[in-house]
Amino acid sequence: LGRPRALRACGVHNVCRLLTRRAHGFYARDAGVALRKNLGLLRKIMCQAVWKEWSIKQTNDQQSFSSSIAQQPRLIYQKSKCAKSEKIEDALLLECPLGEMLPSPSDYKASLIVLTVQNWLLRLSADSGEVLEKVYLAGSCCKFFRYLSWDTPQEVMIVKSAQNKLPAAARQAGIQQTVLFYLAVFQVLPLSFIGMLEINKKIFGNSVTDVAVSNGILIVMYSMGLVRLYNFKAILEQFMEQPVDLGQEFNWNGQVGVVGKFPFGLPCNIKITDTPPLLFEASSLENAFQIGGYPWHYIITPNKKKHKGIFHICSLKDNALAKNGIQEMKCCSLEPDWIYFHPDMSGRIIHVGPNLIKVLKLKEVKNHADQMEIAEDFTIVANRENCVNNSVTVTASGRVVKKRFTLLDDDPEQETFKIVDYEDELDLLSTVAVTQIGADGRAHLDFHCNEHGILLKSIPLKESWDVTYSHEVYFDKDLVLHIEQKPNRRFSCYVYQMVCDTAKDDDS
What we know:
It comes from Ficedula albicollis. This is DDB1 and CUL4 associated factor 17. It holds the Pfam family DCAF17. One of its GO terms (biological process) is protein ubiquitination. InterPro entries: DCAF17 (IPR031620). Helices cover 9% and strands 44% of the residues. A hairpin with a 4-residue loop joins strand 9 (179-187) and strand 10 (192-200). The longest helix is centred in the first third of the chain and has 14 residues, at 33-46. The chain has a five-stranded antiparallel beta sheet with strand order 2-1-33-32-31, with no helix packed on it. It has helices spanning 13-23, 33-46, 168-172, 201-204, 232-239, 502-507, and strands spanning 50-59, 62-67, 88-94, 111-116, 120-125, 131-136, 148-152, 156-160, 179-187, 192-200, 208-214, 217-222, 226-231, 249-252, 255-258, 278-283, 289-292, 297-300, 310-315, 321-328, 338-341, 349-352, 356-365, 368-381, 392-394, 400-402, 416-423, 428-437, 440-449, 455-461, 470-476, 479-486, 490-499. It is mostly beta strands. Among the domains are: 32-75 and 412-508, no CATH class; 286-406, no CATH class.
């Protein structure tokens, strides 16, 4: 769920411009202007700088380091191999909030919140791996693993249980399971327990398949493609039975224990006794649903398989389809194209296909202030100048060969976009494009101007890129991480860092 960067009154364009510049730290007396200028300088430097690479490879808990620069990477710490019962399933990075007094000196340093198989929530020091806090979530009633997410980033965290399923013997005996999920809600830094609630069939219906929480909205998904939105903050306030704190001795349903300690865990102190007021509902293929833009719009795919790859952009106010609001790449590919609201909060939309990235914007229809249309802001096109898909070729001997098939739009032998990301501090749009011929795959990371899409810098990745493996690329200021997952959970991490080009410095 996205948020617009700044709300503007109709026709007050000067106010809009002022708010936008202030949000970026450009206001002359704004406290963020120095940081913004420094980040602007870093952006200019990194778009000219040389990038060097080193790699970390991991196989069965053994790590090896290799480097293409003189200085070897330094291992800060390494967690020892743990038992399966202590295995970490999910994690979130916590960073210190600005302008707040925190109870412990360790709170001012980055830490990791991790979730283990055995229902433990741990806060670890990001510098040393030391366990700073431990919270036991629940006993055998439910399993909390694999699902950590933010409601409000760096403020409110959600821990979701796995879906409750009765044993086969209980189902055969006619016992019905009404509670599908549990949600535990925490305030972070300092870590504090807000409450735990259950998602019950009796309240939300029998066909619930999944739930999520984002930006104060409870999102409930159903098997028929239906998505319903509820006010999560209002639910917490309305149905809270009794607030409790971590470490507090508490009597819950006749059982006395300490909140967050083994074996008591957390009480389910938020009981939803009636269906909350419905904010909005929509039907979409595979429950795909997004909100963003200004004024608020949402993106869905009509709930029929034949419409896969077709996206409708509609007004949240009255469900009206925007002019040019049906977006379709019309590409023939194995991997589907994807679309989402731009994370820069500009209200724009990014639509990514195999060889084309379209950045779209919402604007008022001329002479119709109440109607919005989708217009193209800019496009980024893959480099396929040398790829000619002829159905008829002539060999050196003069023999005519006809192809019995045509290449897909995401054929590995053609340059194809695999990853698109946005670096908010430097205001750069980054793309990863890959070409694979035979066993050798080559990729390059490009930095584009987020405002106009102009190519500013291209960094060829030195390692081979096999399109059959899973890949992730993260870009943050002067670092680029490429994580490759091979079969049997073997990982390789390639790190690129901006370094000073000493040759150029000597020349100057």
